[in-house]
Structure formats: structure tokens, C-alpha cells
Amino acid sequence: MDGPGGNKAMALLSAIVDGDASIQDSVAELAKYGIESTGDLLSTLSEGFRTARDAGEVLDFDNIPDETPRDLVKDIVQRVPEVPFILNGTMYDPEDITRFNGQELHFVASLTGDHMLAVDDRQLYACWRQVTRLEQYLHDRRFLPRVDDASTSNTLFGPPNPLTGFFEHINLKGHLFNVKKNYGRTKLGGDNDEISSFEMVGTQVTELFEHVNYMGQSWSKILPYSSTGDYYHAERNLHQYGWGDRVSSLGTW
Beta partners for 116? Predict the structure, then answer.
């Protein structure tokens, strides 16, 4: 199962939103890498986090809640985007999203950006997210040299300090803060519900959550794989996806 840019995770997500894959398929994909439990996944990823654990809010999937409190779910009011979305095999017009008020949805922008892929099962989405993170980690291990490898010390692979920058206004105006690769923010403080655009420099995935502590609905941008780590993307207007001025926690990797 391969998608654009060799991205198996995106191909799996497309199958999920088309109704052709389930949580069992996500588990099976993890099992191909010897991952039988969350503990196995965290053990596999621990090497990538080793040097960062004392530097701030390292993005740890074990701390992302499995369930959103019911009172938060029932109060969900969907915002109408400018692009259509696919959910359970059906392509919906943007205005149809209000039919899903009171339901928790997780959105991923398509690689072309002209529509969104939506999942209405948080546990299924969480399992797919693990596939995404593991696939990226193994890809980086295969193609990108370790920073302590003397044989590659004179070769630049991607930016030296990969990060995602977040902005208050559209078109990357009004810089708020940066978040380093493999880091997140469980709370945004005074920047809560202020983000309208972001810029990815050397990061491949940016994930936004509607509530603090990675709870509630989410929206993600995933870039095709690069053999050099030279990732770049400018998301200039989150309002087109219904996600401007809506973010309360986030992560990037």
C-alpha cells in the first residue's frame, strides 16, 4: 500500500475515509514493523526523542487522550470550510459539514490541498497517527544521516533546526511562536484561538487540536516524503479549512 511520495500512511488514510480500511488494518500495518502495542511503539521511537526530553514539551503520543470528554463532544459546532471533505466514502460539499455538529471529526488536508479527508473514530485516527509517526521515523532513519556521523559532517540534509512557525494572521503575518520538530504545546496561553497560518521548515507533519491537551477535533497537514529532509510548506490560510482562530494545542514532527 503506497501513496504519493511513497507515503503508506496517506494511502491507508484514503482507504479509511473511503470505508475500505478499519482499525484492524492500521494495527496490521504497525505489526509489519514489529509493533504490537503502544509500549512497543514508544520503545521504537525513544531513540529519536533521547536528546530532546529535557528541552521542553516533547511530543509524546502516550500522553494524547484516547477519548474526548462527552461534554466537549456534544458542544462541537462545525465551521464551514471552503473545500469539500470525504467521510466514510462520501464526498461532501463544504456546507454539509454542519450535519456533523455534535460529532468529533479528525481532518487531514489532501496532498493537493483541494479537499480534506475526515475520520469520525478517534481511536481509529489515533492508530493511524501511530502508523504515520512510525513510518516517518523509519524513513528518516533510512535516508537521513545521524548528526553525529562524521562521514556526513560536510553535507547538509534539510535545515539544521527544523521547526514550524505559527502566525496570528493569514499569509504568515503576525508571527506568534516556533515549535521544534518532535515537539508540541498542550496549551497556547494568550495565543489560544489565534493561529491563522503556519510555515513548516524541515518538518513533515503539523497537527492542530481544537482544545488544550490534544483533545477534541484535529486538523493535520502531511507532506510527501523527502530523501533529503528538505521539507517546506506554507499553509497561508487555515480559514479555508474552517480552522482559523480555532487552535488550542498542537504538535509538529
Answer: 85, 109
With CA atoms as reference, report the closest residue to 140 among 223, 196, 216: 223
Q: For residue 80, what is its C-alpha cell?
A: 464551514
> What's residue 20's pLDDT?
76
Is-contact 101 95, C-beta < 8 A? no
Which residues neighbour 14 within 8 Å (Cβ) at sequence distance 6 or greater?
A: 3, 117
Average pLDDT for consecutive 10-residue bins of the chain (253 residues)? 56 78 66 58 50 55 78 95 97 98 97 94 87 79 50 51 96 96 93 97 95 95 85 97 97 93
Could you identify the residue written with the cell 459546532?
77
State if pTM tops 0.90. Answer: no
DSSP 153-195: TT---S-SS-EEEEEEETTTEEEEEEEETTEEES--GGGTT--
Question: 78 CB contacts (<8 Å, ≥6 apart)?
Answer: 97, 98, 100, 101, 105, 242
Distance of alpha carbon 79 from alpha carbon 212, whole angstroms:
18
The CA distances from residue 133 to 9, 48, 172, 224, in Å, are 9, 11, 26, 13
Cell representation of residue 54: 529535557
